[in-house]
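Hi team,

Below is the intake form for MarR family winged helix-turn-helix transcriptional regulator from Streptomyces tricolor. Please confirm the fields before the structure is written into the shared record.

FORM ID: S-0412
PROTEIN: MarR family winged helix-turn-helix transcriptional regulator
ORGANISM: Streptomyces tricolor
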Amino acid sequence: MSHRAANLPQLLSEARRWFEDALFASMEAAGEQPVTTAQASVFALLDTEGTTVSELARRIGVTRQTVHQAVHGLIGMGLLEQVPDPESARRRLIRTTAEGQRVHERAQATIKVIESVLTERIGPAPARALRDALTSDWGEPPLVAAP
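The structure came back. Fields below:
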């Protein structure tokens, strides 16, 4: 990471890109199909029983059209499927296929290895402090006025 960023949101974004770059390159090197950041976000936020496109869009913070495009790319790759929602005839759920579950589990295992590399590089105490800070309850986002 270059640390050109001046504020915490930029640093967090840069750190996320570092993890994504490592994950995507590692998965492709292992022979997996390449995915986009949007597609990876869909996988990260899917419920086991399936999730609607609208709910995925809300969780990711993007438009339904963006999620729809990512989902249909993943359906085309055989990693997701669209099924009727048993609770509503009008809704469809997006869920992983068996192949999608295999790829997701491999990605999760790869992330653990990437985290261990980070721990080796920055040390166990800073890695633990980073995890503790990111998993702490930050409360509701504040409404502030700049001086």
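SUMMARY LINE: The chain has a mean pLDDT of 93.

Thanks, M.
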